[in-house]
């Protein structure tokens, strides 16, 4: 008679073991670091980081991005307030005294009761690779001098170091993030920016003065190295209640990208090559369903990637597909359903996203077997799939996302509610070293890191479980 309770007990033990491994498996690490709870506050308008440069019609908000598909051009942008002035850029290489000129254009826009300054954009073309250039803007009035370095030529074993920042804003925490990035001993040569720039739309009537302050705040970095722009939800600026019905208006006037070089029909999705990386930028807030321009473009774009030339395939977007925080949960799900099979087919190495104001890194996983009726809806380990990294932790006024789903899902390798930035350091065609740095540590401290093994040239399992 005692055998029945024993059988029941044994059965319950087996069931609990199965549940533990299949359902409540904790596949990764939730950081034990607890950031001091402080309210995130925007810096006041009279902060020195927002200072207007001295001199009549002095150029301000100077920023760079790549200006072509292969890294031999840059787009220089800036704003003048008093009058249009000159849209010409004077530039010369470090080893040459010959000064050249490139002519640009300017525009203005109005948003509710705000009128912008004169926004200049000038593309400098036919630059030499791996060369330091000086450039001057503000010709004929107050001239300001800056410099940048072009990337090495496109090639499979070319090392290159990217910084990663998202959801930056202009709070005191934003300033710490930018300073932390500047002081990192591993120097980023360009920034992959995953969206949400100024957060001007958090102010009444989407106060566009906060676009100007953000441009002046970030100038200290982005005037010297290109930032690769991704549009986030805070760039939409859709406000019909005040008569503003043109989405992305301030962003489109201020931040130009070389979208036509990759045959894109809109500046929200495009691609570039830089050193050994092929970078695809997607728009979470533009139409992406079947037959849409973005869908058709990506469908034609992915087969063009030559991994013998650019072995590292990196995708940027704003809304993450995999997210174990209770914020923006499943917002990226419809895009994932559309595009994830392609990411696995073409062996994307890593996908960087923002939107969730925290940090998270996944294992290599996919959820492409699910077809709505088969019940196969749990992500599985997949060595052809990307690592998904959420880095929406730049420091904006909306504060940290610190409410996580429990238990931590198996696909999540590391997560932490802190502000910070990351570095993606490509060594050669097979290896890249990735590190994430929280703002509250010393500049050289890595709170999370991993070696990436290229999916095309060295598809070894680098998951945390295998190490």
TrEMBL record:
Gene Ontology CC annotation, any one: plant-type cell wall
Protein encoded by which gene: LOC107918664
Domain Calcineurin-like phosphoesterase: 161-359
Enzyme Commission numbers on file: 3.1.3.2
Protein name from the UniProt record: Purple acid phosphatase
GO biological process, one term: cellular response to phosphate starvation
Domain Purple acid phosphatase N-terminal, chain residue ranges per copy: 59-150
Cofactors demanded by this protein: Fe cation; Zn(2+)
Keywords: Glycoprotein, Hydrolase, Iron, Metal-binding, Signal, Zinc
Domain Purple acid phosphatase C-terminal span(s) in chain numbering: 385-444
SUPFAM superfamilies tied to this protein: Metallo-dependent phosphatases, Purple acid phosphatase, N-terminal domain
GO molecular function, one term: acid phosphatase activity
Keyword Oxidoreductase: no
Family annotation (PANTHER family): ACID PHOSPHATASE RELATED, PURPLE ACID PHOSPHATASE 10
Acyltransferase in keyword set: no
